[in-house]
Design a protein that fits this description.
Elements lengths: L3 H15 L2 H37 L5 E6 L13 E5 L4 H10 L3 E16 L2 E10 L1 H6 L4 E4 L4 H5 L4 E4 L1 H7 L9 E4 L2 E9 L6 H6 L9 E4 H7 L3 E5 L6 E5 L4 E6 L5 H15 L5 E4 L1 H44 L1 H9 L4 H38 L7 H27 L3 H6 L2
Parallel strand pairs: 2-11, 4-9, 6-8
Antiparallel strand pairs: 1-12, 1-13, 3-4, 3-7, 3-12, 5-8, 6-9, 7-8, 10-11
Helix pairs in contact: 1-12, 2-10, 2-12, 2-13, 10-12, 10-13, 12-13
């Protein structure tokens, strides 16, 4: 409960501020803009962090992704004619990880290749992912229509596929695609499902070797490996030059049972792969590690944003202090009368601190509303991700109140230090 004395102080403070409304509003502006800036900056930072969590979270924090990477070989650029480039993860790597490393829930092989795809007279190049059914489950890839791949499809070497929505548009398919045949490298595959239009973004897209077209095709792992093998050939045609790449596995997705063992397991896998691949033709993506690094970077960025925005609050605080110093001079006689009637120094200090805190608190509340409005405008016109949280609002209000108290200390002490007799003589 607020005591009667405190209520009286607040009442007197408000009466004093309302006596000079224009001056009070101008004094508040620095705090209003400062708090509005802090709210906007914190909202943008929180939005970026939320997007980051969603983006990397799609990879699964208990997963470790191993990708094949082409090693740098400058001599290949000068070759003419045809040659075979062999590199990357092997079936042996997959078997060793599966057999020698404990605590693994899943070890999923993935083969990725570029294939020519036809439907009617339309022909495009698409990325073909040969995956096990668990691959779609582990990354929460669900179909909007039709069904997903099953173990039966994989065992029977079924010529079926699950596609992304972008492929339908590129091939000009505007009818119901389920059970529709498409031609993949001169072989007919039946569409059994279309994945939800929720493509991977940013880092997740890069880690999973997914392009921005959303036109990937997912087929049973054994269907491709046993029907087509691992070699793909591309050539210029006019010159007769061609390049064949032979990558047994483009990717291995490892799911670890215990979250606490993810980083240790990743180091074990890296050591195993390093022994088998002296040319370093692979890379490890550990979402848990990446998430920790990105969050740390984002936190530093957020602090920098708030620090920049707080400069406006600092300017606002200086403005409050200047105005209150002028007010002390104007109200010298009033202070003398109050002291003569029995008010003590602490009462005078409390009155002036109440006024500065009231200015900064009201300014902070208006600044919060302005910041929320600014964030909504930014979202509307730029499409940026932003999130206004209760903690950011409370932080901004707390900072504004602190600014009011700090900026009022010197004027309040100066007012309290006035000699009552001298103050009464002031004209």
């Amino acid at each position: 409960m607020i005591s009667r004395k405190k209520l009286e102080l607040i009442r007197m403070g408000l009466r004093s501020l309302l006596g000079y409304p224009m001056r009070t509003i101008l004094t508040m502006l620095g705090v209003v803009f400062g708090v509005g800036s802090v709210i906007a900056m914190l909202a943008l930072g929180a939005g970026a962090e939320r997007e980051l969590l969603q983006e990397i979270g799609r990879l699964g924090i208990q997963n470790i992704i191993i990708n094949s990477v082409k090693p740098e070989k400058p001599e290949e650029a000068n070759r003419t004619g045809g040659y075979i480039s062999i590199y990357g993860i092997t079936f042996r790597d997959h078997r060793q990880i599966l057999d020698t490393i404990p605590g693994l829930e899943k070890v999923l092989p993935v083969h990725i290749s570029k294939k020519q795809v036809w439907w009617g007279s339309r022909k495009i190049e698409s990325t073909l992912f040969a995956v096990t059914p668990e691959h779609l489950e582990i990354f929460d890839l669900k179909t909007s229509v039709g069904r997903t791949l099953t173990k039966v499809d994989d065992q029977n070497l079924a010529r079926v596929c699950v596609i992304r929505s972008g492929l339908l548009e590129e091939l000009g398919i505007y009818e119901d695609p389920i059970n529709l045949p498409i031609n993949i490298n001169n072989e007919s595959f039946r569409i059994i499902g279309v994945l939800e239009d929720d493509s991977f973004q940013g880092y997740a897209r890069k880690a999973l070797v997914v392009d921005a077209r959303s036109s990937e095709i997912y087929v049973p792992y054994n269907t491709i490996l046993k029907r087509h093998g691992t070699r793909s050939i591309s050539g210029s045609g006019s010159t007769g030059d061609w390049v064949a790449t032979d990558i047994e596995l483009n990717q291995i997705v490892v799911s670890v049972e215990d979250l606490d063992q993810v980083l240790m397991t990743s180091r074990t896998i890296d050591s195993l792969m390093a022994m088998n691949h002296p040319e370093q033709d692979y890379e490890l993506v550990v979402p848990l590690e990446v998430l920790a690094q990105r969050r740390k970077t984002q936190q530093v960025f957020n602090i920098a944003l708030v620090a920049i925005a707080s400069i406006s609050l600092l300017v606002g605080g200086i403005g409050i202090a200047n105005i209150m110093l002028a007010t002390v001079t104007e109200r010298t006689k009033e202070i003398g009368v109050r002291r003569a009637l029995g008010a003590r120094r602490r009462h005078i200090m409390a009155q002036f601190l109440t006024e500065t805190t009231t200015i900064s608190t009201i300014g902070g509340a208006v600044g919060v509303l302005m910041g929320i409005g600014l964030v909504e405008v930014l979202i509307l016109f730029t499409g940026w991700s932003a999130a206004i949280t209760l903690s950011s609002v409370l932080l901004a209000l707390s900072i504004s109140m602190a600014v009011g108290i700090v900026s009022g200390i010197y004027p309040a002490r100066r007012a309290a230090a006035l000699d009552p007799i001298t103050a009464l003589r002031h004209e």
